[in-house]
Amino acid sequence: VQLVQSGAELRNPGASVKVSCKASGYTFTTYNINWVRQAPGQGLEWMGRINPEDGETKYAQKFQGRVTFTADTSATTAYLELSSLRSEDTAVYYCAASWGYWGQGTQVTVPS
Question: What is the DSSP letter of 88?
Fold first, then answer.
């Protein structure tokens, strides 16, 4: 099982960012994809998850209205889109399949 995420992103405040998570080595629809982030000096923060089989999503309340998860089963890729970025969104963003398999992380930087 392998999850490969897109590269680092630098965005201005107020912009949006879209991070991808390409899955391989298993049947993509088998596991939920969770998204978590880790800000500098902070612990892991769960953002929510998507079921790639039916597209059902669950968002942490903190991010509702600002985050969107999608999954392209033909491309076996999950996406996180975060809008209205602010400096506090600077973090490394991770995808995880069934919590046992993790992407390498994507650094998103939003200057203050």
Answer: G
